[in-house]
Amino acid sequence: MVKAALLREQGGPLELCEIELPAPGPRQVRIRISAAGVCHSDLSLANGTLTQPVPAVLGHEGAGVVVEIGSEVTRVAVGDKVVLNWSPACGECWFCDRDEPYLCEGSVASEASAQPYATLADGTPVYAGLGTGAFAEETVVDERAAVKVPDQTDLSDVAVMGCAVLTGAGAVFHTADVQPGQSVVIIGLGGIGLSVAQAARVAGAHPIIGVDMSEEKGKVAAEHGVTDFVPSGPDAARAIRKLTGGRGADHAFDCVGGAVTTRSAWSSTRRGGVVTVVGVGSKDSKVEFSALELYWFGRTLHGCIYGRSNPDVDVPHLLELAAQGEMDIAALRTAITDLAGIDKAFDDMREGRGIRTVVSL
Ligand code: CXF
Ligand code: ZN
Which residues make beta-bridge pairs with 210? Predict the structure, then answer.
């Protein structure tokens, strides 16, 4: 039995309990989780904004050490340090063939999260949020959900890689393809937004304009590459135009997701500008623009799952950038807690306190 933070029902609190994990199947690995970031999607899965079968162990931004492997595992060995990938691709479908693993049809994650992966002491089946279940001392996942990292990696420093950094940096490098000297607007300065900022700085963007309700986040963002801060609100678009030659930015990233923020991102860009929606909005949130403005402004609108990253390729690349001092992944962690502190981390997130809380296990 291992300790876990259990979501008994959506809308309820997390409860500390013990779960029984199965022995890994032939292509599965058992991982001792060292650290797990608390992502906004965990909050959405916990409060019912996103669907989640229960009881469930959430947590998908994790890092740990492989402690057991199935008989056919080839990617990792016992003792390897790994970062979790919440969207491990099948490698065989139409999308995987076209190098779009983030769109994988046979997504191992959706299969894994639809089937129970563990049990409670009384035999009740337990589901793993996004197939990973990182808010527990240990988990069992498909080997493709484990991305090996170098032995010297500090796992607490890199836990946030598994979602925020891959998503934010991927959006800059793979989806928007930001070029040196281009202007960038980032709406929402949380873990994803600051990963966008760091990656935009690496890409040579200027200016990098951060937009958020919290002035405090604006100050923190300056250390992650944001050159100018604009408070959210009705005057934001005018302030952004002033910073971008009166035209609007080359790129805008909506790191919140939803009608209001996507529309602000849209209005922040110049004619011919590129809008990249990175945050996960709700299915009822409808973004509006007229057919005429779509034509006349000539803008491009991208959605991007997981930043269009391929974790097997991008994790090593991002760790290299961190080793060279070009990115500061560890600085995204602004609080450390234990399994009992996740509900408080959700409160902090709702109130806009801090960037990322990391659960230390
Ligand atoms: C999200 C993506 C959409 C479904 C829920 C999880 N990913 C990570 O935060
Ligand atoms: Zn996430």
Answer: 186, 229
